[in-house]
Every structure is written in structure tokens, then in C-alpha cells.
Design brief:
The chain has about 400 residues and is of the alpha/beta class. The chain has eleven helices and 22 strands. The two termini are about 30 Å apart. About 50% of the residues are buried. Bound molecules: pyridoxal-5'-phosphate.
Length: about 400
């Protein structure tokens, strides 16, 4: 038997024993989508989450949403009034952010390998480019001249420290992201001398950390680094984006991140500092609010082990299969949605419909006995789900994505 991750707060069974999402019965949601599989996002849970974050963080701290976590246009539009800015990672996401109504001056565009057309689009729109190299800065300056626009430029710094314990380290050594901290002051000077609108610094050290202490340490190091770059370059950074890295509990034994402790420490760290500060979070805002629903189309036995075969799989929800940045496969929080109030009484594996052994949604899990026709819920599907999965693989249809609005209870 392998443990399942803990089901996030805010999900309850209705009187019929079936899971409700945002107050709606799962079968009603399937009927609304037309068929399984589908994703459902509860905006009520996202709102409650962001309210908790705002209450925890120091007043005046910018709270930005990293659109890559879930770029569904309707979700981005719903997120716009809840946050102070959007961080985008491609020309496509820039389009989503602008279409969502986020003012260009509150959009920043980070990511290595920006194509000239993407740089031009950002400069033309008036979004901030977080430049990742000296050569990219030159391309952005040229774009400004060519388009007759003053480019808004920030410098992404590759910090010499990493975010300890993070699932994805993006600092602390040679990296394709940002310019090495030692070269940042010269690049700031070049940007200012060229007459660009210098917007500040972007220091992103990693993702998916669950240890508040590690985040507190990385934020303090980022504040200090920004201070020293400002001093060495002779230009105060109008905005210091301290990155994010706030993790969410996917697996058994993971604990909820103590954002209140992070906020209290950050308030002390930036008290009396001149420039504005911001954090950018993706999964922390949206992961727990999403559920992937898929139907069991076969129940079979092989060598006394039970396999529940679903009509969904890794083509929609790659991360739950363990093939999106994890070394050892562990079970996400998964449940039989149509028997949500039933006690587990059988060990079974839930697999997808793709003919590859990689397509697993739960391995050797204790679940209520389920039959063909039951619905499976895969939780933590609000971030890096639909858009981070190989939807074209094996020619299955994409999964529709629904937004519901619950009362936010339990977040
Ligand atoms: N910002 C940058 C620059 C990133 O690289 C990432 C993730 O890789 C994020 C934001 C979002 O990370 P998360 O969803 O873990 O908050």
C-alpha cells in the first residue's frame, strides 16, 4: 500500500455521498461539461487563499500571479482584480494577460530565449521585460528605438544563493536564468544610460518549497542582494521582485506552508526600505482550487491486483502521473468522487487510458471499492495541469475546464 496525498481543505461530500466542488455535485459538473474528463476550478477557494496571503504579507507588498501556473483566459480574467500584477513567460501568456485586462505596466515578462517578436510585443504594449542577459537587453533597447517606445526593463539576477529544499532550484550556480549577480550592476547602468525606463530587479531562486524558514532566508538574501546592486549601480530599483517559491502539499507527509511566518519575517526585512517589493506566486494561489475528474471505464484484475482504468490520464494531468519534475513517483491526493464519504476498503491502482506504464494516477492506494462508471477526482490540479500536459499525445480530446464559485469555505 502506498499513501495518498492529503485532500486539500474545502472539499466535502453532498447528502448523496458524492464530492461537491464549489457547492456543485460532481455529476452535475460532468453534465455541464458534456463528458469526462474535465478540470474544475473553484474561484471561491482562490479568493480565500489570496485573502489569507494578503492578510499575512506586509502592507504594500505587491502580490503577483505567475500566469504559467494556470493560463486559462477565463481564470486569468478572474484573477486580475485579486492581484497587483501578472508575471508572464511567453508572448502567448502576454496576450492572455492583456486580454484579461491587466494594465501593461503591471505585467512583467521573464524567461530565457525570448524571440524578437515577443520582445517587440512587450515593448509595444508597455509591459516590463525582465531581461535575462546582456544581449537580450540590447535586443530590447533596439526594439525601443525601432518602435519609437521607451522600453520598460528590469534585470533578472541569477542569485548566488538557492532556495533550499525547493523542488526546482533556479539560483545558486551556473543557470540559464538571469545575469550573474556580479554583472547585474553594469547591466543596470547600461539600461539607465540608454534611456530605458528602468523598472528594477527580479530575483527568483526556486519553486515548490514547503519550509518557511528556507523561504525567509532566501527573501532576506534577495533583499540584501537588491540593496547591494542598487548601491553598486547607482540606481535604486523601483521594484524588487523577490520571487516566490511558495510550495503546496502534494504528497503524504507534506505540510501546509506557514505563510504567516513568512509575512512576519518579510515585514521586518523590508521595514524602512526605499523601493517597492513584490512576490510572484503561481501554484500557491491556484493548485488546491483545481480538481481533475475522470470516469472509470474498466475495472480489471491482474495477478490479484485491482486496476481501475479511467478515460483520463497523463495527457491531461501529467504531474499526477509523476512525470513532471519528480524523481520518485508518489501519489497525489486522489479519491473516488462518487463515493467521497465511503471508507477505504480495498487496495487498487488507478491508471489512465494511454498505453504506457507511465500513465498512473494512483499506485496501490487504499480506496472505497469502485466500479466502472464511478468518477475519480485528482486534486491539486489547478496549477500545471491542463497546460503542462501533453494534450496531443495519442489523439484524445482535450479536457474542458470549468470555473465554479464556491463560498471559499475551508481554504
Ligand atoms: N516565476 C518564475 C520566474 C518561475 O520560473 C516560476 C516557476 O518556475 C514561477 C514564477 C511560478 O512558480 P510557482 O508556480 O511554483 O509559484
Amino acid at each position: 500500500m502506498k499513501p495518498l496525498g492529503s485532500i486539500p481543505p474545502g472539499y466535502l461530500a453532498g447528502p448523496n455521498g458524492r464530492l461537491r466542488i464549489g457547492g456543485e455535485d460532481v455529476e452535475a459538473l460532468v453534465a455541464r461539461a458534456g463528458d469526462t474528463p474535465l478540470f474544475v476550478y473553484d474561484l471561491g477557494l482562490i479568493r480565500a487563499r489570496i485573502a489569507r496571503l494578503r492578510a499575512a504579507m506586509p502592507a504594500g507588498l505587491g502580490v503577483h500571479y505567475a500566469v504559467k501556473a494556470n493560463p486559462l483566459p477565463a481564470l486569468a480574467a478572474a484573477m486580475r482584480p485579486l492581484v497587483d500584477g501578472f508575471d508572464v513567460a511567453s508572448g502567448g501568456e502576454l496576450g492572455v494577460a492583456l486580454a484579461a485586462g491587466m494594465p501593461a505596466e503591471r505585467i512583467s515578462f521573464a524567461g530565457p530565449g525570448k524571440r524578437q517578436a515577443e520582445i517587440d510585443a512587450a515593448v509595444a504594449a508597455g509591459a516590463t521585460l525582465n531581461v535575462e542577459s546582456e544581449s537580450e537587453a540590447e535586443r530590447a533597447l533596439d526594439a525601443g528605438v525601432r518602435l519609437g517606445k521607451t522600453p520598460r526593463l528590469a534585470v533578472r539576477v541569477n542569485p548566488s544563493f538557492e532556495l533550499k529544499g525547493s523542488g526546482m532550484r533556479m539560483g545558486g550556480g551556473a543557470k540559464p536564468f538571469g545575469v550573474d549577480a556580479a554583472r547585474a550592476p553594469a547591466l543596470v547602468r547600461r539600461i539607465v544610460a540608454a534611456g530605458a525606463d528602468y523598472r528594477g530587479l527580479h530575483i527568483y531562486a526556486g519553486s515548490q518549497a514547503l519550509d518557511a524558514g528556507a523561504i525567509i532566508e532566501a527573501q532576506a538574501a534577495a533583499v540584501a542582494l537588491a540593496r547591494s546592486i542598487a548601491l553598486d549601480s547607482g540606481s535604486a530599483a523601483p521594484l524588487v521582485n523577490l520571487g516566490g517559491g511558495f510550495g503546496v502539499p502534494y504528497f503524504a507527509g507534506d505540510a501546509d506552508l506557514d505563510v504567516e511566518a513568512i509575512g512576519a519575517a518579510l515585514a521586518v526585512e523590508i521595514a524602512g526600505e526605499e523601493p517597492g517589493h513584490a512576490i510572484e506566486l503561481g501554484r500557491w494561489m491556484v493548485a488546491e482550487a483545481g480538481v481533475y475528474l475522470t470516469r472509470i471505464v474498466d475495472r480489471k484484475e491482474s495477478m490479484r491486483r485491482i486496476f481501475l482504468v479511467t478515460d483520463g490520464g497523463l495527457h491531461h494531468q501529467l504531474a499526477a502521473s509523476g512525470n513532471f519534475g519528480t524523481v520518485v513517483r508518489r501519489n497525489y491526493p486522489v479519491a473516488i468522487a462518487t463515493r467521497f464519504d465511503a471508507a477505504p476498503d480495498e487496495e487498487a491502482s488507478i491508471v489512465g487510458c494511454l498505453c504506457t506504464p507511465l500513465d498512473r494516477l494512483a499506485d496501490d492506494a487504499m480506496l472505497p471499492r469502485a466500479e466502472t462508471g464511478d468518477l475519480v477526482a485528482v486534486f491539486m490540479a489547478g496549477a500545471y495541469g491542463a497546460s503542462a500536459s501533453p494534450a496531443g499525445f495519442l489523439g484524445h480530446a482535450p479536457a474542458p475546464e470549468l470555473i465554479v464559485v464556491g463560498d471559499g469555505g475551508g481554504a
